[in-house]
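re: that chain from earlier
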Amino acid sequence: MTKDISGRFKKARDLFPHAGKIVYFNSASSGPFCTPVHDAVRASLDQRLAAERDDSHQAFVVAEKLRGDYAKLIGAPKRTVGLGMNTSFALNLAAYGLPLKRGDEVLLSDVEFPALPYVWRAATESRGLRLRYLKSKNRFFNIDELQKQIGKRTKVLALSYVQFFNGFKNDLKTISAICKEHGIYLIIDGIQGMGVEPINVRKLGIDVFTAGCHKWLLAPQGCSFFYVSDEVRDRIVPPFMSWLGVDWKGNFSDLFYYDRDLFDSSRRFEMGFSSTLNLMGMTASVKLFQDLGIAGIQRHNHTLLDRLAEYIKGSSKYRITSSMEPKHRSSILTFTTTDESKNAVATLHRRILDDKIILVNREGSIRVSVHLFNDKSDIDRLIAVLDR
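^ sequence. v structure.
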């Protein structure tokens, strides 16, 4: 069985032309294309270039399948999933569409990626809400602080599944239970965990979950999917609307009807026609996750990071800045140098890049984001650079 799993990951690695030349540890920023994604996008371009037929309806067919594909990956019914253009799309849907009253309170972590603070800052200012930041502990989300700060007017907690700068995976099971106890909407930015850390949004009681597909999901930029729970969908007043948010029963030959009902699904929130190029790329990339399974990808990634972590723990030159607690680990591992001079981390980062190992410097740490196309040789190449 182990050999079979290893073989499947080897076949997946072979689909990425960069592998074996470039060591790519930067899917937390933007995932590389595999050959099937490249070919699918190019085939769509060629089809439009030829203009031999009307292919506009193909997008509807592909989009419908993708809703189901992503729904299965997060343990949700297809009716709860819609397609967007980025993570912020559904964050705005929640921020401006949830039934909140003036004076209601929104909680955020004080170590969040800017997507959440800027969306909610604008929404709270325009809607007369109150925005508060929860103090983290050692730059990790602090559940004790959450429980301490919940008040009578607290109505929303917006949080990342995995934190971008140190890979801290939040304990959504515990957090969701707290939110349900207090009647708080739980809004999750899932982009840094989706595709590499298993999640079941229904079992976790998440109200809105959103994830761009250009990072770990290895699809083109400018596409995403989102989940809105059955319990919350009808409470949201759409802050924007498209003519494709209503059910035309597939008949676009008779359009002089202005009283169609909204879709009884998350499709009602989608913003019109999707990019066919993106849809085709998404279709090609999602197959990798269906074939390998997200739990299998997680095991693969964590095993590789264990190899790196073992080296760092044994070195006097570096220290790990990620949490190594099993429930808080993710496919991101961060470390820094014990050299406290001003430009030490930046200098180390440049040295790693010079060896054609692609990763980033985030908040004073080197961020390594390992994915399904990486293998032991990639980790060993990084260790060789660090060991010089």
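The chain is about 40% helix and 15% strand.
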